[in-house]
Every structure is written in C-alpha cells, then in structure tokens.
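Support request, please re-run this one:
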Amino acid sequence: MPRVVDHEERRSQIVVALWLVIAEHGIEGVSLRHVAAAADVSMGRIQHYFGTKEALVLAGCTALVDNAYGGYLETAGATPRERLLHIVSQQIPRDDGGRVGVSVWYAYVAKSINDDAVRQVLAEARRGAEDECARLIGAHRGVHPDAALTQARRLLALADGLTLRVLVRDLEPAEAVAMLEAEVGAG
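Re-run finished. Output below.
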C-alpha cells in the first residue's frame, strides 16, 4: 500500500525550517540547500512544493501572518478588551521561541523595503490589525470611528516599540505586557 503524504503538513514543515534558517542567517542567507537541510528533505521536495526560493520566502511570510491571525481567531469568545490586548501583545516575545518568531518578522519587515510582494503581505496584515483594533476600541471604549482609528495606530506603534525593546533585552516581557494592559484599559 502506498504511503499517504500529508502535503499541508510537509509544506508547514518546510516553512518552519525556512523560519529557522531566517532566524539564524537572515533572509539573504536563505538557500534551498539550507532549508532542505533544516527540514530534512531534498531540495527537489522544496522545489516541488514551492518552485523557487522567492516563492518559498513569500509563502513563509504569508504563513507567519496567517499563524498570527489564527491565534486571534481563537479569541472569538473573549471581550473586546481581551481581544484588543491579544492583538497588541501577541508580538511581545515571552521566550526563546517568541524571539525567533519576532526576529523572523523583523527580517521580513527589512525585506519589504525592496520586495513588493512581501511589502504587500505585511501592509495588508498591518491594515487588517489596525482596522480590527479600531473596531475593538470602538466597542470597548465607545468612541467615534475616527478617534478609534487614531487610538489604534498609537496603540500598535506602542506595541511595536515595546516589542523591539523586549527583543533587544532592554525590557522584560512582563513589563511590556503590563504597559499594554494599562494602555488598553485606559480611556
């Protein structure tokens, strides 16, 4: 009987290996050979699933965004305040795995400067997060949509700054999350 291969699982395995390579070598250090070694598959297998290095890198970016969105969807039964806090605090790295994830995110941010496809994925994700934050702020605080959008932008900018400080170990994760909780609870 032929072996059944879960293609989505195989693609996910390759993407996780890509992220590990990015975390260690940066996006410019990505090669199909490095990713194949990290995933314990052949280069041909990666080419079968993704075609090119560029397609693999873009798939990794999309998967990173999709994973964050999936985490948000799991908060469906929470209050607007809890959901808002999830959006703004999920990027704070709380352990070594979180640091890897955030470093990969920042590698994609840097790549977006010269890569239109990556820039489009990241910009769409940020606009979606901003719009959802504004909607949740409106529901939580009862403010006008324009004011909610301004507050969402400020809150996301604060989260970005706190994330960077935690990433470089200038601030403890608990301190950063406490600041976001205070800000979300404010107003």
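The radius of gyration is 18 Å. The chain has nine helices and no strands.
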